[in-house]
Amino acid sequence: MPLNSEPLRKLGFLTIGLFDAADPLLGHESTLEIIELGERLGFDSAWVRHRHLQYGISSPVAVLAAASQRTSRIELGTAVIPLGWENPLRLAEDLATVDILSGGRLNPGVSVGPPMHYDRIKDALYPGTADAEDFGYGRVRRLLDLVRGEPASDFSGTEGFEVFSDRVQPHSPGLGGRLWYGGASLRSAQWAGEHGMNFLTSSVVKAEESEDFAEIQLSHIRTFRAHHPDGDRARVSQGLVVIPTDGASPEQRAKYEEFARKRTPRTATPQGPARLLFAPDLVGTSAEIAERLYSHAAFREVDEVAFALPFTFDHEDYVQILTDIATRLGPALGRHP
Question: Cβ distance 210 to 219 under 8 Å?
Fold first, then answer.
């Protein structure tokens, strides 16, 4: 292990939870089984993605509520909930409820910005108010304040037989410290740090000051910590697509390599008007992946990861990949359950 890299302290994984429209139960059940497997393998956290009007998890809080009743130890996170689709007060109630049910294991990750394809869905999502909605950081601030127990109303007390609270109920005291911001820009990194959040950095960043992915991600991590009250102790989790092949069959290895090959061109240069830069997928033995991670400037700054599972693989592939990450790659990175 290189001297300038800390041993991995927390090992997590991220899944999108795809399903077939003709049988959505099968895909959701697969996601729950994968989370259960993650707990048995000793992972510290399991995270779910968020998709609207697609064939992936549209209600991660509901899925994690189910997962909370089928697990007892593993932390459960969202990476990430796009707040443009949410009412912060209602979301705060849902998050607090699931955190209570899970025994304080919820790690909600959020982001801001207009919903994807907003012009096509705005009348369904916000009829009558679509053009007045604010999708900036203020939406996160509202959620933070409500989860942390700030007043949501100027009234509390008894009215007839009803008892009212002036803040979101249930209130889960530790949840405010487990809110994460999923950021891909320097501005987001700074904002998250200034507001005392944790920071999720993934396989997509904005090429603002460089076209080197690791350098960009490193600058985000350092900017976040420079503006966070906890400084270098502020929590950062790195998410990259990692596919170990130690226990894979020849057919699986061929599938994984083809998957990465098709996605490689988008990692060469920034994509689109937003200049999004994608990290290469890491495919190989655990020893090979560990060597590449140790040479990654941003990885050397973190001690928590949530490795992303590829979108389109089969349940059996995820079992093999998670097993190799837990039993081979994790120890190679200095992490022991």
Answer: yes
Q: Is the dihedral angle over the CA atoms 266, 269, 275, 281 positive or is it negative?
A: positive
Contact 239, 200 (CB under 8 A): yes
Q: Is the dihedral of CA 259, 280, 15, 85 positive or negative?
A: negative
Q: Is the pLDDT score of 337 beyond 90?
A: no
The DSSP call for residue 174 is T
Q: Could you read off the pLDDT of 61-110 as tens digits, one per residue? A: 999 999 999 999 999 999 999 999 999 999 999 999 999 999 999 999 99
How many residues in the chain?
Answer: 337
CATH code of residue 314 = 3.20.20.30
- Asked whether the predicted pLDDT for residue 2 surpasses 50, the reply is no
Q: What percent of the chain has pLDDT over 70?
A: 98
As for how many domains the chain has, the answer is 1
Domain membership of residue 309 (yes or no) is yes
Positions of E strands within 259-327? 276-278, 282-284, 304-308
d(CA 78, CA 110): 7
Residue that has been written with the tokens 């999720």 in this structure:
200
**Domain range for residue 270?**
10-151+168-332
Whether 158 maps to a domain, the answer reads no
- Within-domain flag for 3: no
How far is the C-alpha of 318 from the C-alpha of 141, rounded, in Å? 36
